[in-house]
């Protein structure tokens, strides 16, 4: 069981405190500007602020000065980032008074403003129709973008049936929920404002369970997945819906 | 010599058909004729000449690719999945060399083909792109990522563990740390036991670093400082 403890009192910078605007020049080079408000975090003025832009494992790091003299309003060119992938950002506030810089506050996986997913309009489980060989469905979990339910494109209606047909939903969705929750608890991730935060909120609303507390209580990831999947199936009466559907047919 | 190219849709299908056949028939013939057939391949602009050759290890391959691809904009071709697949066929003898009977080992699909969505679980396993990118990002230090200790192995556990985590792989100080721990500077080879399981292994290093990254800013650390942050399980590797 992995546990992620915050011994050093590291603070979380909320997405709402960071507005990152991405633009593209005539030469195709992307650049960004950032507006970061750290006023409410009571950070030392001498701590340095870094913004890191990344696409998968290509990344660039920018020094925005110190908390008290942050260089905002500048435009930074992303000349070394891969083209064609979604650009994400990290913000770190670092105390560099010691030999090794200590992170005082951070935000991860920030999306630029204008990205629909930064405004919370993304479904927590997008469904994608794709070639899966002889498999019918598969769950992909991208550490940045979160889970996607992939369904076979060889059954053209499957994508819709997963959403509307109680038999398909009952066969697939509880296990998908189990896999996602297991992944979240196992990884120990707890960032708000990204897909992990969205799923944690959903689990709280749907099942009344707190994933962060499940981690802290040292509940195994598998047990947490089982518990949420069971509550999900029960709450939606999946068995009863399947029985009714079978009888109707 | 070939002109660097990328597969067209037809070329991609043909290559994947070969990979499917290879699973059942080790003697399936690699369709190298499609590499310069305009129905299956289109030349990348600006034109770059590249030759199919067998390298002693992936480090040499990565270095060669960086030399050859130097004139191009790395940001653009880094995610050109059809170009990397084309290169996988060009360098098929490095990925899956023929044995004495002429047969080839079937390997995981991700070793040859990048998924369009760059699935984080597999993209770092592409044998050609990972060789190029490791050298591109880490220069001579990439040796620790690209050498193996087993004949015929494409990737060491060091590369597997570090490559699987984008921010770990992308931190130069961390790759230099791995080099310091597991590369024998006198021979230029991996040290014995570098790929073993248990304490002080690459898997443990990544787990430890991920914890340290929560507290410390490792991006600007020097190797000695990082080394001193490691727990005692790594002590046996610290002596040069």
Question: Mind explaining what this structure looks like?
Answer:
The complex is a heterodimer of chains A (249) and B (240). With 249 residues, chain A is α+β, with helices and mostly antiparallel strands. Helix content of chain A is 30%, strand content 28%. In chain A, the strands form 3 sheets. Chain A has a 5-stranded mixed beta sheet, with no helix packed on it. Chain A has a 3-stranded antiparallel beta sheet with strand order 2-3-6, with no helix packed on it. A 3-stranded mixed beta sheet of chain A has the order 9-11-10, with helices on one face. In chain A, helix 1 (158-164) crosses helix 2 (166-187), helix 2 packs antiparallel against helix 5 (221-235) and helix 2 (166-187) runs antiparallel to helix 6. In chain B, strands 1-4 form a two-stranded antiparallel ribbon. By secondary structure, chain B is mostly helical. The model of chain B has no long low-confidence stretch (mean pLDDT 90). Chain A binds chain B through residues 4, 6-8, 10, 50, 52, 54, 56-59, 61, 79-85, 92, 94, 96, 99-103, 140, 142-144, and chain B through 74-76, 78-79, 117-121, 123-124, 133, 137, 166-167, 169-170, 214-221, 225, 229.
Q: How many domains of chain A, as an integer? A: 2
* Overall helicity of chain A: 25-40%
**Would you report the number of β strands of chain B?**
6
Q: How does the major sheet of chain A shape up?
A: 5 strands, mixed
Radius of gyration of chain A: 21 Å
Structural class of chain A: alpha+beta
Helix count of chain A, per DSSP? 6
**Helix share of residues of chain B?**
40-55%
Radius of gyration of chain B: 19 Å
Oligomer: heterodimer
Overall average residue pLDDT of chain A: 84
As residue ranges, the low-confidence spans of chain B are none
The coarse overall form of chain B would be: globular
């Amino acid at each position: 069981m992995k546990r992620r403890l915050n011994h050093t009192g590291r603070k979380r910078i909320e997405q709402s405190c960071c507005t990152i605007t991405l633009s593209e020049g005539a030469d195709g080079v992307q650049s960004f500007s950032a507006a970061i408000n750290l006023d409410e975090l009571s950070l030392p003025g001498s701590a340095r602020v870094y913004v890191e832009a990344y696409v998968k494992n290509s990344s660039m790091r920018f020094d925005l000065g110190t908390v008290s003299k942050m260089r905002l309003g500048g435009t930074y060119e992303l000349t070394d980032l891969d083209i064609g992938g979604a650009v994400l950002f990290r913000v770190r506030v670092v105390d560099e008074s010691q030999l090794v810089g200590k992170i005082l506050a951070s935000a991860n996986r920030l999306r630029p403003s204008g990205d629909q997913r930064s405004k919370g309009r993304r479904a927590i489980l997008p469904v994608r129709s794709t070639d899966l060989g002889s498999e019918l469905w598969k769950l992909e979990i991208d550490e940045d973008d979160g889970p996607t339910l992939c369904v076979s494109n060889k059954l053209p209606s499957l994508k819709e049936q997963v959403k509307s047909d109680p038999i398909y939903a009952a066969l697939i969705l509880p296990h998908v929920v189990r896999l996602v929750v297991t992944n979240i608890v196992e990884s120990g991730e707890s960032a708000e404002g990204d897909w992990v935060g969205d799923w944690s909120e959903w689990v709280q609303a749907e099942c009344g369970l707190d994933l962060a507390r499940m981690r802290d209580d040292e509940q195994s990831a598998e047990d947490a997945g089982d518990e949420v999947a069971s509550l999900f199936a029960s709450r939606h009466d999946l068995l009863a819906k399947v029985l009714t559907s079978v009888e109707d047919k | 010599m070939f002109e660097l190219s990328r597969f067209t849709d037809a070329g991609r299908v043909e290559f994947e058909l070969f990979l499917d056949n290879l699973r059942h028939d080790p003697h399936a013939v690699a369709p190298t004729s499609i590499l310069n057939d305009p129905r299956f391949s289109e030349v990348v602009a600006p034109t770059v000449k590249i030759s199919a050759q067998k390298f002693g290890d992936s480090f040499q391959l990565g270095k060669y690719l960086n030399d050859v691809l130097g004139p191009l904009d790395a940001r653009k071709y880094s995610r050109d999945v059809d170009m990397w697949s084309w290169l996988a066929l060009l360098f098929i003898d490095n990925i899956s060399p023929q044995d004495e009977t002429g047969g080839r080992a079937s390997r995981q699909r991700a070793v040859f083909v990048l998924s369009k969505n760059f699935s984080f679980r597999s993209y770092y396993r592409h044998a050609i792109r990972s060789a190029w990118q490791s050298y591109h990002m880490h220069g001579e230090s990439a040796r620790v990522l690209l050498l193996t200790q087993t004949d015929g192995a494409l990737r060491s556990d060091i590369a597997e563990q570090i490559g699987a985590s984008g921010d770990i792989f992308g931190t130069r100080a961390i790759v230099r740390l791995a080099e310091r721990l597991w590369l024998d500077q006198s021979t230029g080879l991996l040290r014995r036991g570098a790929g073993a399981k248990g304490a002080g292994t690459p898997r443990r290093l990544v787990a430890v670093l991920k914890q340290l990254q929560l507290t410390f800013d490792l991006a600007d650390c020097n190797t000695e400082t990082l080394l001193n942050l490691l727990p005692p399980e790594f002590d046996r590797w610290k002596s040069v």
